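queue> pop job 88
queue> type: inverse folding (structure -> sequence)
queue> payload:
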């Protein structure tokens, strides 16, 4: 079921990216980098201190506009967290839709970041009350978030720093919550 959902979402997102590439003066690029995931985790009404998960992200983007414009992308992104000997690893396909302001050599952007969960692994992670954490039933497959960032570009090379914070509780349970907080550093090529 998840594979079929992922395939349909990927086709839709690819079509969206392809449609935005067609206009004249559009730029297309690839970006890859490092994620530092440090989510906000609560159990009941208590914040839980969790460790981060370092991972990577990679994807394609297109942008259009000179001074003011937009960016749309399709990325694979690793997130998650650790608690003592336990860990939760969540992988997403992200589709950011961002407004962009471009100055000489520098751009700033912000907007909506949609995430579709494609993989979840929980190792030794007990849930509240001792019940085990089950990826199939305990996580939401769709996350709505926000992304802001800034980057510099020289010739076809770029360096971007961004922050993504999820507004969706990705924990499908009423005994706690997980909201993503992800810091990203990316290197890119624009064509």
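queue> result:
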């Amino acid at each position: 079921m998840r594979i079929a959902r992922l395939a349909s979402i990927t086709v839709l997102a690819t079509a969206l990216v392809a449609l935005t590439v067609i206009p004249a003066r559009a730029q297309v690029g690839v970006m890859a980098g490092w994620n530092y995931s440090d989510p906000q985790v609560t159990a009941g009404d208590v914040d839980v201190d969790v460790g981060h998960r370092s991972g990577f992200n990679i994807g394609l983007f297109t942008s259009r506009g000179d001074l003011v414009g937009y960016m749309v992308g399709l990325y694979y992104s690793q997130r998650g967290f650790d608690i003592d000997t336990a860990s939760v690893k969540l992988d997403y396909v992200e589709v950011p839709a961002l407004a962009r302001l471009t100055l000489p050599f520098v751009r700033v952007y912000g907007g909506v970041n949609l995430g579709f969960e494609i993989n979840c692994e929980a190792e030794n992670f007990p849930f509240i009350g001792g019940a085990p954490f089950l990826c199939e039933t305990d996580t939401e497959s769709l996350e709505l978030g926000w992304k802001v960032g800034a980057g510099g570009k020289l010739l076809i090379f770029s360096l971007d720093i961004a922050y993504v914070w999820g507004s969706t509780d990705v924990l499908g349970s009423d005994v706690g919550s997980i909201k993503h907080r992800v810091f990203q550093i990316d290197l890119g090529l624009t064509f």
